[in-house]
Amino acid sequence: MPHRVVVLALDGLQSFELGIPQRIFGRSLGSEPLNRGEKLYEVVTCSVRAPGPVHTDADFTITVEHGPEALATADTVVIPASHELGPVYTEGRLTDELAAAFAHIRPGTRMVSICTGGYVLAAAGYLDGRPATTHWSSADHFQALFPAVRVDPDVLFIDDGDVLTSAGVAAGIDLCLHIVRRDHGTAVANDVARRTVVPPHRDGGQAQYIQRPVPDAQLAGTTTARAWALGRLERPILLRDMAQQESTSVRTFTRRFREEVGISPVQWLTQQRVERARQLLESTDLSIDQVARDAGFGTPTSLRQHLQATLGVSPTGYRRTFRATAGDRC
Question: Environment class of residue 187 by beta-carbon count within 10 Å: exposed (0-12), middle (13-18) or buried (19+)?
């Protein structure tokens, strides 16, 4: 049976965030011979009340066909942002209606929030003692209201195992793609991203708030350098080499790179190499030594260290999870 995702639609919800789970999970299709083309998730939307209208933050309402009982069937619960959280936002407590809805959720259900949906998880006690994030503009208020939560206002999303939180708007897409990647591997997540026309991978640690997200029009960007680097990830790449592709100094290049991408060139290179290694581990029978070389890490030790730091798993363990037959031959 497909993994069942239940999206909790609250009054005042932001329609964009509401559509993210259906767009990402609902379009995730199997890529293995036994499930190729089959839907991997079933997405259901429910309300805290009986089926009926739910107000959005726009000039329209939506009709939700499921009540809170649907939460009892969820493998994953997703709570999008809402602008009408009432005492959840002002006092840090669930309304009676929300508490009754949450009582349907089975122990062990994966809990996910998008943007200010994290307030609901925090008020329900899911985030006590855990790291979490929310939209950067709400981070200070969130931390003051829920001092037991370890709030990180700078990241796109946080994966804490069975509880995951994201920053606002597009970061919800990043988190949902991350979940697909975690559940079914890079190939499936990349396929969804390609059809959604969004970047296939933005790491959770990437900054959510960049002071200058759009470079000055008169300044050159760093697109040429990034394309050049992606074409030679298996070889040593120095910062000065990337700067030369844009005919600029290392200092200027580094500043422009952060303005465009939100992280340093070195961090970006490591992310791209980890992504390349994941693709090779999933889709080829190459030895771990060869994967390390082709991804630009040079040695299996370096590959293992970076994969462990990023994913918490060894190269062989990752391959065994997403490509069992290849993993058995490692």
Answer: middle
